[in-house]
Amino acid sequence: MMDGQLIAPICFMAGIALGAFALTLRLASERKANQYKLRERDKIIAEMSGRIPVDEAQAHLSTLKLEMDGLREELACQSAMHEQALADLIKQASLDRDEMISKSCLANDARISRLRNLLVADHATLERDAGVLLGLVKTVERWHDELQAILANNSDLKKQNESFSRIIKNVVMLALNASIEAARAGEHGRGFAVVADGVRDLAVSSEMLAQNFQNNLFKNDLVTTTTFQDMQASGNMIRTLVFGMKATIDKIQSVIASEDLAA
Question: Where is each Methyl-accepting transducer domain found (predicted)?
């Protein structure tokens, strides 16, 4: 970013250098013109020395000498003015360049400060979110343990239901045997036969109820197992996300620390 912002001052200095170069060329051109005039004067003096009297030639020579001195003074004055203007131009260009670089550095410092503040804010937000996710992971782990307890309880209930089913089957067999014995007893066993039939009907109803209870336990196992697997996968995803966020937090912290050291 800093190199890009130095392009403008460099281009500005290049323009100043080109202007100074043009000024130097103009000064050289004026010097060349004055030198040409001096050569023309010498040529005229040489031509006149063979045609006019000595007194007249000396008078012309004095006049030309005065003109030459004036031209030299003018040339020296212009040269000094041009050199001073060039020095002032270079000095002003240097001041402008330093001012532009200073402003650019201040602007960069302000931008870096804003970026650092944003990084600090993002770092705090990520840390807070990571803490929330870690709390959620702990909640999922607690649910995981509770679901395992539910599965274990379902297993115990199925075992108890199987024992209950065996008892019902035995009751049915006993009721059947009682009915047979009541039939053998004839009229004396009729009341006992009615009771035996009632017990058998109750046992059959209990067996159907036990079967329904068994089916519901299987359904609960299926739902609980599916939920258990989903929660386990969700917990792993959240845990992976937390690890990624922690890596990002560490990188941001490293950048902030580097900026502090650089400052």
Answer: 136-263
